[in-house]
User: What shape does this take?
Amino acid sequence: MEFNSRLDLQIRYATLSDTKFIDHLQKKNAEDLSFYPVGVFEREIENQRILVALVNAEPAGYLYHGAIKLDYPLKIHQACIQYDLRGNWYGAGLCGFLEDLASIGGSRFISLRCGSDISANTFWQNMGYKCVQITPGGIRRMRDINVWQKLLSKDLFGFEEIEPSKKKKDASIWAKRDKTKKQNSMLRGKALLDYRKKILEEHNG
Assistant: This one.
């Protein structure tokens, strides 16, 4: 299925042939994105949870989202546009299309997490998202994570907005860790915070 947003932009569901492009763009922007193995992308493509933006018929970006369910929040896991195409509102077209899908599917709101030192925070703010929470990020970058949300249902109360963190990343502690110990790049949530706490305790003696 394909959707036209403007003359030079098309948005469609990703196919398995897009996997190489998606993984390449993820790796190219590794400092700004969480990491997902290729197998995750292949599975989520089959689940129709990855949208691809094409500019003049060439892949230009993608958006990986969670399940769209009635009365549930929708999570954006990754969203990325090629660097030389940013600032042309292609990302806005991609996200706007997801918002339309979410509204049709009955989602209550959209939520995403964004590193405090990433320029995309300004993009999300311009798209009408509000920063509602700040949480600690992983130990490798030691930055904060801004949680952004956008209300889709008029029946719900608005979010209490806070000033997003602008904390810069600091890789010094990660560089001094015990490199002989196995690292897990797929830690999420409480497991990630527990691992961060452990490394900080080792660092502080």
